[in-house]
Specification:
The chain has 170 residues and is mainly α. The protein contains 5 helices and 2 strands; from the N terminus they run ααααββα. Strand 1 and strand 2 form a beta hairpin. The radius of gyration is 19 Å and the shape is globular. The relative contact order is 0.18.
Amino acid sequence: MLRVFLLLLTMTAGALAQESGPVVTAARKQIMERARHLVAAAKEMPADKYGFKATPGQMTFGHMVFHTARSNNGLCGLVAGEKHAQPDLKDTDPKDKLVAALEQSVAYCDGVLSKVSEKTLGENLKTPWGEEMTRAELLLEINADQADHYALAATYLRLNGLLPPTAKKK
């Protein structure tokens, strides 16, 4: 009987430790939804348009995909408290390599975000750019970053006569 009790206690403690709570759940849901839209946009843009940019001062579509993959790895690595290795990648690499790197970065973020607990949101983390941010602030930063990148991707798709993923009928 004691073994059963200890087993149940261990399982319950493990389940509670994994529970992320409403704030983390909402942040993860939004971040991952935008991330899926970014991957869909990257797949939608034809390979020959990865060099497209709306004005000379803006980044190319390929650079946006490259930058987003690196941002995901870097920011989610900060949330995890680790330095995630960046893929060997250039913004001029072929579409399939850039999309694969973006997909890998999204999977990495999903894994990291699935482990975040409400209890750790207030922890201060040192960023590579010299700021201290709480884990909660980093979640908000990732969310804003994803929204910014998707807005650019959607604009570039429309400028090339394509509908962004969120504009397509379901």
